[in-house]
Write a structure and sequence with these properties.
alpha+beta, 36% strand
Length: 169
């Protein structure tokens, strides 16, 4: 299976919006679609929000099969780590469609992120991972991320416990 990696362009926003929503719902909607969950997904993964991220940050990498997005990684530069209280790049997204799991796409995206950060002189990368997402935790541990503590992701009313993981580049 031939997978290509490239920087996202504005024309990708609609397809990435659907990809983000699909992966997020499958991963986090363990109790169905609550109102706050629906509001979050609708606003956070709107075409306009993704276009803005692509245009302003140039930090979205897309994995494509037959030129169709199947995975995505997003770097959030100068992000405040909730555990160590330092500012460092955050891996804000590493999403792969279910049908493409186990094909090295997540690894390829992470490798591209790490190369970009190393080229820019960064020494570490951190991320949040939902404590119930065992597959993602296992992937991160295999990629040499270490859990440095737990923090809560706040939606509207509810908060969700996450591991905060760090990798030295």
């Amino acid at each position: 299976m031939m997978i290509t990696l490239r920087k996202a362009i504005k024309q990708d926003a609609l397809r990435l919006s659907i990809l983000y929503q699909q992966v997020y719902i499958k991963t986090y909607a363990t109790e169905g679609i609550t109102h706050e969950f629906a509001n979050f997904v609708y606003n956070k993964f709107s075409v306009e929000a993704i276009e803005k991220t692509i245009e302003e940050h140039d930090a979205v990498i897309v994995a494509c099969y037959k030129d169709n997005p199947v995975g995505v990684a997003e770097i959030v530069y100068n992000s405040q780590c909730p555990i160590r209280n330092v500012t460092a790049p955050e891996l804000g997204k590493l999403y792969v469609l279910d049908w493409f799991f186990g094909k090295g796409i997540g690894y390829g995206l992470l490798n591209e992120v790490e190369k970009e950060l190393i080229d820019k002189g960064y020494k570490e990368l951190w991320l949040w991972v939902y404590i119930k997402n065992k597959r993602a935790i296992s992937f991160c541990e295999k990629q040499k991320f270490e859990c440095i503590g737990n923090a809560f992701f706040q939606m509207e009313v509810n908060s969700y416990e996450n591991h905060v993981m760090l990798k030295t580049l």
